[in-house]
Each structure stands twice: as structure tokens, then as C-alpha cells.
Amino acid sequence: MSLNNSKAIEVSNLTKYYGDLLAVDHINFEVYQGEVFGFLGPNGAGKTTTQRMLTTLLEPTEGRIIINGHDLARDAYPVKRQMGLVPEESNVYTELTAWDNLMFTARLYRVPRAERVTRARELLETFGLWEKRDVKAEDFSKGMRRRLSIAMAIIHRPKLLFLDEPTPGLDAQSVRAIRGLIRQLNAEGTTIFLTTHQIEEANQLCDRVAIINHGRIAAIDTPERLKRAFQRVQSVEVALESPEGSEPSGGWAALPGVTTLVKMGDKWRLYTDDPSALLPQVIDYARTHGLRIVSLSTLGPSLEDVFLEITGQQVGVVRHETKGGGVRRGKGGPRRDRQ
Amino acid sequence: MRNGLVQRLLDELAQVWNIAIKDIKVYYLTPPMLMFGLMMPFFMFFSFSVRREMAAAQSVARLLALTTFFSASSAGPVIIPLERRMGTYDRLLAAPMSLVALLFGKSLVGAFFAIAVSAVPLLVGLLWLRVAVANIGVLVIGLVMASTAFSAFGLAFASVPTRSVGSIMMPSTMIRWPLLFISGVFIPLDEMATWMRPVAYISPLTYAQDLMNHAVLGMGLINTWVDLAVLLLSAILFLLLAVWMHQRSRRLGY
Question: Domain range holding A314?
Fold first, then answer.
């Protein structure tokens, strides 16, 4: 969807206190019509609080929200008619059938009778639920409930759709279907506000992302511009086989220029400021130690790297010390620490 | 402008009805509704009336007030925490309608439930015990008004922001049960100690019981119009209290 300059959401000085706790700290951002806008942040950063304020579920302590030209504090009714909400929990009525869930929601948004029947059928077919239309949602799988909750959120053709963590816990097929649907909705003109932990999802779907941390917007830009701003976060990824079949390890961290060494599955990732200088050293190291290189590649910063740089979070893979050349494997699963 | 307001009003009324019908489909046969709204008033009545000499008509009048009170005031405290737990309440709060419309829709659910449940003692009284209803008009209007007022009473409790039915039922029961003893249901107003009567007049259940006495027995201690006016006023006040508590929750972020 091509973006235009008119704003779907304008947030200024938005603040939320829970008692003495400052959850959202005077944030400002804009979302343009036709945009897929990603809202990223670690747990407790203020993502959900912000989204709840944008969807009228929570009253801001301070600040202003304007959606499609309407001030939310004064004139929420027309805004509510134009927005759809898919919360993190699939909030379908489990005691009702898929069809009844859609009919109820369509009536709630005053979709005319003839249109709601046509629209419900169209959505159920699109989401692969038409055959299950008379089945109660309590008998649906998690993925099916998710699809139904999205169908309920868009039955009135909202101009602005809020999605909170739409894909975690779903099988790959459902994830692909939902991402495809988000693209399709956006192509049809719906502005999407996507709150997610899934950084790769934001990378694939979003025109722009905002990263919120400790209640403040830490960065806001397109994924590619954000990555470019963090060019120092580059790496060489290498997979090796030793002749004896044992796992090669040890001396990578001692190579000049390696800032952080991370084991990722059967590969090693060597973070560096200068991949081109590191590459020949990696090849020399492998040859010297009798190791066969299975694969070797250089990587630019990913959106996850940017996210981790900005938020100082620890996710993903095993941490390995580089100082002193030692390599250490973390306990209890992968973990990563950027120095 | 006027057309816009009229259309908005019509939309909200349609949404009120939509919510009421949905809740009837979804929640009427859930165990907490059956337990707190259907079985409890009957158990309570029989536990207090066994071995007491009471005319059939008097029993029916009391049972009508009791079932209306308990059934109507149970709906909100059961349904709203369940909706909060399932996340479906957010769907309603985010929908294009006013909080008053949402809560009015919820209060209708309790009112319809109470009217349906109170039909049981009424039919038993009419068909089995051969009780004659003295004033059918007062009976119908009284049941509707009492059910609406007590449903709104339950909603005020349900506006406490919790996902647990028990967290609301416990305080609501602690208030509802004493009301039974000061409202002329178990001890008629004219037999009540003089010092207790002013307390009785604070309770809306007193006026519901008095209306049922007018309707079934053909006599009561308070003017019928006063009974109706107090119940109407109670319904409005409890609904406004529920709206205020919801707005407070939205502001505080519970």
C-alpha cells in the first residue's frame, strides 16, 4: 500500500501513570494512512498500555490522541466505528458458533443486514472457516480462534486495525496465513498498528517501526534505516566440521576484531566492526586447526540486533565472553548478551 | 444534526438489544448463573419458610420478591468477570457505543433472567396452590421494575474490576443477605421492630416486596406509586454508579 501524508494517528505527549508508576512517558509519534506501523518493545516497556490508550480502553493521564482527525478524548464514537482491535488473547465467544460470533460483532458495529451476511461468508471463506461456521468456537484450535478473532475485528471494514501480538503460539501455516492477511488488508487500504515481540515479523511487515523502552520511544524509522544506523553491528557467521566429528570451539574469540562470539545452533556468529578484515582470519583459523568450513557468510545488522542495541535486552542465543579468548556456554537454553 | 442524534440513539438501542440477546445465549445456562441466580433463591426461601405457617399467597408474594432480587442481582456479577477473563469485555468497551448503552444491555440480561425465574413461583402459585393475583397490572410492572433495579444493583458490584466471579460474589452476598432480613421478605414490615423500620426504608428490596404484596395480596404498607418511583430511582442510581465505577477503572487502569 502506498503511503500518503495524511495521518491516521497523531500522538502527542502521551503519558500514563499507574499510581506512582510511570508506564508511558510523554511519547510522541505519528502513523500515516495506509501504513503498517510496528510498535516494538520488551515486556513492560509500555506497548500494551499505549495500545489500550489508542483504542479507548484506558484513559491517558496526560497527552492527546488524534485518530483520523478526531480527538479521542472528546469524540471517540466516530473513531470507534473506524477501528478494529485484535487483542493478544483471541477474544471470541467460545459458546457461540463462528457464524454467531461474526453476526454479533457485525451488529455491534451496525453493519447493515444484507452486507453482514455477505461479509461474514466472505471472511469465513478467506480464513478457511466456512466449513466450520456452525461449530462452536470452544471446539476450535488456537489458530482457528485467532483467525476468527481477526475476522471479527475486520467485519466492519475498519480503516485502522490494531493487532496485538497476532502470531505467537501459532503453527507455521497459521502464521503465514495471518501475515498474508495483514499484507492483503494493508493493500486494500487499511492502516495497521502492529504491536509485537516478533522482530522478524515487524521486519517483514512494517513500513516503519517504533521501539519503546522504559515507557519512552527509543527509535522510530523504517526497518532498513534503523539497520543502517547500526552498521557497527555486523557479523561473520561460520559453520564448521572437525575431522573427528567433535564440535570445534575455543579460539574464535581471540581473533582480532571479534567483539562478541555467539553460538547459534550449529553455527558460530562472530560480531565485528569490520567483517572484511575478519573473513580471511576465520579461513586461516579453520585451515590451521584442520577444520572444514561448511558455510561462511557476512551479515549486516538485523532488526533484532537494532532492537537489542537500543533496549539492552538479552534474548536469543548463548553468551560467550570474548575478553581473554575464553568461550562459555550459558545454562538453561540460549541467551545472548551484547557488550 | 438532529437526524444524527436520532440515528445514534437508534444505533445504541439496537446495540443494547444485541448485547442482551448475546448474553442470554452465552451465559444463561452457565453453572454460576444457575447456582447463584436460580437455585439459591429457592433454597433460601424454603430454608426460611419450612415449618412456618404462611398462607400460600403470602409465600408466593415473598418468593417473587426474593427470586427477582437474587436472580437479577446475580447476572452482572457472574457475566462481567467472565467476560473480563475471556477478554471479550474489551471487545464491548472498544465498540462504538456509550458505556450507558453497554451497561443497560447488561442490566436487561439480569432483568430478563429474573422475570423468567420468577415465573416459576408465580405459575406454581397460580396453577397448583390456586393463588389469585389481586392486581395483574401491578404484578407485571412491579416484576419489570424490580428486576431492572436489582439487575442494575448487581452491575454496580460487577463494575469492580476483577476477572474472578468469586471476588464479586462474596462482597455482593454479604450485602444482599442482610437486605433480606431488613426488607420485609422474611420479617414483614408490620411485624418489624419500630427501630428497624427506618433501616428497611433504605433498602430497595422493601419496595419490591411491598409491590408484590400489593399485586398478590392486594395490600401493602406503602403507596404503589412510591414503590415504583423508588425502584425506578434505584435502577437509575445503580446504573450511574456502575458507569462511574467503569470510568474510574478506565482512568486508573485496573
Answer: 230-325
